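for the recovery benchmark. tokens below, seq after
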């Protein structure tokens, strides 16, 4: 028997006759936010994402302007037209335009689950530029509400700002583990 089994055996023996205790789960799972779009834009901006809020009829024009001159990947199912989508090798793409599964106002986070318009995870990690299109109805106040909308069996990517890391001297380096630039377009 190894150390792990020994320790687990002792824990099981110690709690063998312990009474069953109901665990209170009365923590906050939602709360009112007057302006979900505004709070999301502010918090995502705090993480160095460039956030634009546009009306539905201006979405495609804004996407075209933001992606002009970039070879961008457009995953299947994206509900917006993107001029001249990139069809070459992933490592040669200059960016990606995706939708999202849900966005969280409190944390400024977008969550992708590889659903329609979101593509494979690699498509959002390899290119240096990511434009994520969020609809206002996809924004929830907090993490518990977001988790309730997500399928835990799907591959989830949680994005709070451009990819960044710090070295031992706390020098910030962007783009090491994903896109150096994150634009978020909120469509109202």
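predicted aa per position
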């Amino acid at each position: 028997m190894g150390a792990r089994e020994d320790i687990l055996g002792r824990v099981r023996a110690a709690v063998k006759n312990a009474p069953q205790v109901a665990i209170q789960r009365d923590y906050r799972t939602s709360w009112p936010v007057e302006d979900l779009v505004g709070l999301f834009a502010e918090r995502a901006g705090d993480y160095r994402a460039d956030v634009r809020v546009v009306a539905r009829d201006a979405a495609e024009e804004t996407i075209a302007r933001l992606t002009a001159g970039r070879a961008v990947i457009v995953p299947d199912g994206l509900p917006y037209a993107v001029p001249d989508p990139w069809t070459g090798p992933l490592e040669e793409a200059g960016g990606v335009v995706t939708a999202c599964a849900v966005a969280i106002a409190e944390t400024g986070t977008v969550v992708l689950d590889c659903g329609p318009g979101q593509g494979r995870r690699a498509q959002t990690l390899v290119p240096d530029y990511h434009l994520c299109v969020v609809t206002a109805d996809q924004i929830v106040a907090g993490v518990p509400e977001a988790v309730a909308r997500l399928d835990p069996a799907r591959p989830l990517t949680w994005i709070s700002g451009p990819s960044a890391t710090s070295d031992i001297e706390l020098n910030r380096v962007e783009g090491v583990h994903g896109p150096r630039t994150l634009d978020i377009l909120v469509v109202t």
